[in-house]
Amino acid sequence: AQSVTQLGSHVSVSEGALVLLRCNYSSSVPPYLFWYVQYPNQGLQLLLKYTTGATLVKGINGFEAEFKKSETSFHLTKPSAHMSDAAEYFCAVLNRRDGNQFYFGTGTSLTVIP
Amino acid sequence: EAGVAQSPRYKIIEKRQSVAFWCNPISGHATLYWYQQILGQGPKLLIQFQNNGVVDDSQLPKDRFSAERLKGVDSTLKIQPAKLEDSAVYLCASSFAGYNEQFFGPGTRLTVL
User: Would the pLDDT of A95 be above 70?
Assistant: First the structure.
């Protein structure tokens, strides 16, 4: 069975500071990994994804994430936070050998302090 | 390219009433998903369709929830009768195939009083 753990339900950073949102997964096989962002009263929007190949993936809005198989992690980072980054972030896992079912983490709310 | 459309955006009903939500996926997307997102939680998959067939409905409370995807395009999710704990945002998503990224609609916020 799959599971996704997002450490820290709330993260606050100062504008211009590094953003680090943590995601760990459990899977018996290398999964596909995704980060989504959700702004208030909106649906989820894909930030980036890892399927195969290069383990460092770049997404929209300056975000990137690195797949570390040995640590079963897929942490999301951005070098310099912007006020517009304030939102809810969800990590998701897909196991292609498990009926292609998506499992979402519980989310991390990012606050950016001016 | 048009995104995933959902209606209504907001719905307020009393417990024991019925409600239906509609979703129109992105054109050409074979896979359609319905999620329930309770405040402060991640989306929980209710049902997944591949064309007009059900792939996974293991977390759908079948005594009160039903969904259909006639002709493999639009989909409707129904709750009958609603309970207080059904208050949530209901998200519809679609993907080209089951292993691709999902594109989400804006959701329907349901409040059950």
Answer: yes
Radius of gyration of chain B (CA): 13
Which tens digit of pLDDT belongs to each residue from B20-65? 999 999 999 999 999 999 988 889 999 999 998 998 898 999 999 9
Chain B, nearest residue to A95 by Cα: B99
Mean pLDDT across the stretch A17-23? 97
Give the C-alpha distances (Å, rounded to integers) separating B39 from A73, A93, B1, B47, B62.
26, 21, 30, 19, 22
B53 touching chain A per CB within 8 A: no
Q: Is the pLDDT of residue A94 over 90?
A: no
CA-based torsion, A50, A53, A55, A60: positive or negative: negative
pLDDT at A19: 97
Is the pLDDT confidence value at B1 over 70? no
Write phi, then psi, for B99 (nearest 5 degrees).
Answer: -110, 10
Of B4, B45, B93, the CB nearest to A101: B45
What residues of chain A have any CB closer than 8 angstroms to a CB in chain B?
4, 9, 32, 34, 36, 41-46, 49, 90, 94, 96, 99-102, 104-107
CB within 8 Å: A100 and B55: yes
B56: nearest CB among A43, A99, A107: A99
Neighbours of B102 (CB within 10 A): 26
Nearest-Cα distance to chain A for B62, in Å, is 19
